[in-house]
């Protein structure tokens, strides 16, 4: 089955590409030719120097404007052609490389050498220059990010606004694989944990547990005490957190009860014994942390515990 690209079959697409390449090469030669003519009419003061334009009609600007009016191109276009032609002497120009690539690479320090080493085009499998490849080589941002780093930088630019960043983060963390891999980053995990602690402290600030409030026995109005929905929701959340904590503890006990008996008669290497001892130490420290948090309400962990749980 013939493959189509856009609205044409592949063989027609390849024919059009071949013709387009010929036209681009011809166009590049024309652009350099116009630049050379503009450079002859109005030479740069120094090779590669600035393009300060004279204010009088007999100066650089006046000469270039007379040229552009005569040939039907814009002043900016001809000025750009002139500058690129000055930056690329005829002997340094690369046949088969577009004028656009020459223009982008013109400002790089080692342009003459760099243009001789085109990068690999992953789409075509050939070493060749493209506009985006030249922009990457020159350190410019590309219109279409390709590499992981370019895509990340594009996302960072779009998420410069805090509202956008929060919305995007919430959407991305709803992907299980994204959330899982993000939590493998120690710094990201610590930031999330700290944010959870801060949220809990904010929610509990100057509040009493709704189930602990004393019953005064007093009724208001018709004898029915008004209900605070927000307080009831907080109570449910705390009850769920308590249930989750008990579940974690019970899960560990159940897992240990299932696995430990299977270790009968097993011989372990020194490294395995050391690893088990380290994990048991973490378990003891975590259990102490839970006990302290439940007894005192203080959930902060000291640096020694933090380092231990991080595996340091």
What does this structure look like?
The protein is an all-alpha fold and 312 residues long. Among the domains are: 4-117, no CATH class; 159-207, no CATH class. It contains 13 helices and 4 strands. The protein has a two-stranded antiparallel sheet with strand order 1-2. Helix 1 (10-41) crosses helix 3 and helix 4 (99-105) packs parallel to helix 6. The longest helix has 32 residues, at 10-41. It is elongated and about 90 Å long. The model is unreliable at 47-57 and 208-212 (pLDDT under 50).
The shape is elongated
Beginning-to-end CA distance, first to last residue: 59 Å
Helix content: 55-70%
Q: Please, how many helices? A: 13
Mean pLDDT: 79
Report the sheet-strand fraction.
under 5%
Largest sheet: 2 strands, antiparallel
| Computed CA radius of gyration, to the nearest angstrom | 35 Å
The parts where pLDDT drops under 50 for at least 5 residues are 47-57, 208-212
Order of helices and strands: EEHHHHHEEHHHHHHHH
Number of strands: 4
